[in-house]
Design a protein that fits this description.
Number of domains: 1
Strand order of the largest sheet: 3-2-1-4-5
Number of helices: 4
CATH superfamily: Ribonuclease H-like superfamily/Ribonuclease H
Oligomer: single chain
Radius of gyration: 20 Å
Number of strands: 5
Helix content: 25-40%
CATH architecture: 2-Layer Sandwich
Largest sheet: 5 strands, mixed
CATH class: Alpha Beta
Structural class: alpha/beta
CATH topology: Nucleotidyltransferase, domain 5
Order of helices and strands: HEEEHEHHE
Length: 139
C-alpha cells in the first residue's frame, strides 16, 4: 500500500468515513529461552526448567477510534484463528467501509479465497479496499 493512500485512509478514519484496522499477532512466553547466564568458575552451566505457559494474542488497532480489539490463545495463532478473529470484527462492524491492513506474515496468505469473497459479499466492499499488506506500523 502506498504511503499516500495510507495517509488518505488515516485521514478518512479520523473523520469517521472509514474503519481502518491494523491487525497483527504476538506471542509471549513466561520463561524465554536462556541466551546467556552466569555460573561459578569450574562448574557447568545449569538452568532449572521453568514450565510457564505460552500465550499468543491477535489484535487489531482501530485507527479512527483509537481502540484495541484483541483475543488471546493458549497456543500458536494459525490462519483459522485469523479468519475467526476477522469474522468477529466484521460481524461487529458498523455501516462504514472497513479496511484491514495486514503485514506480510504467511498465515495472512492462508486466508482462503472463498472466505475473502464471502467477506466482500457480506460487507458490500470491493477487494482493493479490504485487504492490504503493510510491513510498517501505524504512526
Amino acid at each position: 500500500m502506498k504511503q499516500t493512500t495510507l495517509g488518505k485512509l488515516q485521514q478518512a478514519a479520523r473523520e469517521g468515513a472509514v474503519r481502518l484496522l491494523y491487525l497483527d499477532e504476538a506471542g509471549f512466553h513466561g520463561s524465554p529461552p536462556v541466551q546467556r547466564s552466569w555460573s561459578p568458575r569450574g562448574l557447568p552451566h545449569q538452568v532449572e526448567p521453568n514450565h510457564h505457559c505460552r500465550r499468543s494474542v491477535i489484535g487489531a488497532l482501530d485507527f479512527g477510534e483509537n481502540t484495541l480489539i484483541h483475543a488471546s490463545h493458549s497456543g500458536t495463532i494459525k490462519a483459522p484463528n485469523v479468519e475467526c478473529f476477522i469474522d468477529g470484527m466484521l460481524a461487529r462492524a458498523n455501516a462504514l467501509p472497513t479496511v484491514i491492513v495486514l503485514d506480510n506474515a504467511s498465515i495472512h496468505h492462508g486466508i482462503s479465497e472463498a472466505t475473502r469473497q464471502r467477506w466482500l459479499l457480506e460487507h458490500k466492499a470491493n477487494e482493493s479496499s479490504c485487504f492490504s499488506s503493510q510491513p510498517t506500523v501505524p504512526s
